[in-house]
Amino acid sequence: MPSMHESKVARHRERMRAAGLRPVQFWVPDTRSPEFAAQVRQQCQKLKGDLAEAEVLRFTEEAATHIEGWK
């Protein structure tokens, strides 16, 4: 016999399918793993002092200030 949670999930999935959507599964890196942290650290070190990276960072920081009207 399905649990109440399983039944609720099934109803939700049916509503989503009725709305023309379908489920998709994505696998992403485990950001909690030490290997992930080490890889990010290594990549960041490679970018240190890179002029193109500095420009992208400046652009990103500037863009982040333009949030008026966001909800």
Structure description:
- With 71 residues, the chain is mainly α.
- The chain has one domain (4-63).
- The protein has helices at 4-18, 34-47, 51-63.
- It is elongated, with a radius of gyration of 21 Å.
- The two termini are 42 Å apart.
- The mean pLDDT is 92.
What is the 3D form? elongated
Largest beta sheet, briefly?
A: none
Q: How many structural domains in the coordinates? A: 1
What Rg is obtained from the alpha carbons, in whole angstroms? 21 Å
Structural classification: mainly alpha
Kindly state the percentage of residues in helix.
Answer: 55-70%
The total of beta strands comes to 0
Q: Quick gist of this model?
A:
This protein is an all-alpha fold and about 70 residues long. The chain has helices at about 5-20, 35-45, 50-65.
Which features does this protein show?
single chain; 71 residues; mainly alpha; elongated
Question: Could you outline the blueprint of secondary structure elements for this entry?
Answer:
Blueprint: H1 4-18, H2 34-47, H3 51-63
